[in-house]
Each structure stands twice: as structure tokens, then as C-alpha cells.
From TrEMBL:
InterPro entries with a match to the protein in the record: K_chnl_dom
Extent of the signal sequence: none
Residues spanning the membrane: 12-30, 36-54, 82-103, 115-139, 159-176, 188-209
UniProt entry keywords in alphabetical sequence: Membrane, Transmembrane, Transmembrane helix
Record's protein name: Potassium channel domain-containing protein
Domain named Potassium channel: residues: 151-205
SUPFAM superfamilies in the record: Voltage-gated potassium channels (SSF81324)
């Protein structure tokens, strides 16, 4: 069993947790236990990140544990400060994970499944970061981001959808940023998403060409 698990790329668990967050969480969000479900999914992503940045770093493991505790605490208290701290601290950890993965992608010489998974994880994790930022904005101002039909955002699925639409610059126009900070975040997400794809693809293509020349 250990041999089988050791062959699984370490980024696989993070990839699965992000996919669950993007596609499964919005579907079951109507449950009466939605707060516990939120906390569970957020915690799963944070714990999965430990395989990326916390394997041999005690400070990283402690930071991830602190973030998980704050995520659970914010759903059992009405203190806005705790909610802001939980999301801000989680965003910081996600950002460190993205930077770590980008560094690993740049340093690797060969193109393998680990590299591909890390590339996908980095892109999807940026989308998660943007969704956390948008969630924080909406907590502060419920009218900061709205549907064109003026029915307001319904659940976390709408926030995730809007965040990835902005990041990929698709722009369906069904959800619109209203406040200035929401508009700034939408611009930031679009620029970040496009720069990530352009830069990472350039590195991967460069590695592929170098390997072809060596062979």
C-alpha cells in the first residue's frame, strides 16, 4: 500500500481537493449543514497544501494548522475580525503554495506528470485565491458584485464561477463588479491568469525544446 501511495504525485491530493471545491461544493451548498461543508472543503485544500510546502518545514505545518483552525472558528462566531483573519491567512498560504509550485516548475529539467500536475494546481489555486478575495469583498459589501438581473449572488458557487470567469477573461457579463475594489480585483485576476499561462507555458515549451535537442 505504501509503495502504491509513494508513486502517486504529491500534487494529486491538492488537485483533487481543488476540483471538489470548484465542482462539488457549489452543488451541495444548499445543505442545512453548509457551514460545516464550507469549513471541510476549505480545510481539505489547506491540508493538501502541506504536501507542497510543509513536508519538512515545521513553520509551514504550524501555519497550515493555524489556518485550518481559524477557518473552523469563523463559522462558529459572529466576529468579523476572525473571518477576515481566516480568509487573509488562507490567502497568504495559498499564495506561498503558488509561488512554491512556480519555483519547482522553473527548476525542473524534465517534463513529467509531476510537472503537469503542479502546473494545473498553480493555475487552479490562483482561481481559489481570487474566490476567497471576492468572498471577503462580498462579506463587507453585499452589493459589490451582482447579477445583471439584480437578484444578488446566491451562494459560493456563484463566487467561484465569477472568479474563474474573470481569471480566464471569458466575460459572459451575467455577473458584474459594482464597487471599485471589486473592479480592481477582476482586473488583477484577469492579468494574473493570463500572465501565469503565458509565462509557465513558455518555460514548459523551453524545457521540451531543450530535451529534444539533447535527445
Amino acid at each position: 500500500m505504501k509503495k502504491i501511495l509513494s508513486k502517486i504525485p504529491k500534487g494529486t491530493y491538492l488537485l483533487i481537493s481543488i476540483i471538489l471545491y470548484i465542482f462539488v461544493l457549489p452543488v451541495i451548498v444548499t445543505s442545512s449543514y453548509k457551514d460545516l461543508i464550507y469549513a471541510g472543503f476549505y480545510s481539505l485544500i489547506l491540508l493538501s497544501i502541506s504536501s507542497i510546502i510543509g513536508e519538512k518545514k515545521k513553520w509551514a505545518q504550524l501555519a497550515i494548522l493555524c489556518a485550518v483552525c481559524s477557518i473552523w472558528l469563523m463559522y462558529f462566531t459572529d466576529e468579523q475580525s476572525i473571518k477576515y483573519f481566516a480568509f487573509s491567512f488562507s490567502i497568504l498560504i495559498f499564495s506561498v503554495a503558488v509561488i512554491t509550485m512556480i519555483g519547482q516548475i522553473i527548476r525542473k529539467k524534465d517534463i513529467d506528470r509531476n510537472l503537469i500536475i503542479e502546473t494545473i494546481n498553480g493555475y487552479l489555486l490562483i482561481g481559489v485565491i481570487i474566490s476567497f478575495i471576492n468572498s471577503t469583498i462580498l462579506w463587507n459589501n453585499h452589493q459589490a458584485i451582482t447579477f445583471t438581473k439584480d437578484i444578488g449572488l446566491v451562494n459560493i458557487g456563484d463566487i467561484v464561477y465569477y472568479s474563474f470567469v474573470c481569471m480566464t477573461t471569458i466575460g459572459f457579463g451575467d455577473i458584474i463588479p459594482q464597487s471599485q475594489i471589486a473592479k480592481s480585483v477582476s482586473i488583477f485576476s484577469a492579468i494574473t491568469g493570463q500572465f501565469y499561462v503565458a509565462i509557465i507555458m513558455a518555460f514548459i515549451i523551453g524545457k521540451f525544446i531543450n530535451n529534444q535537442h539533447k535527445n
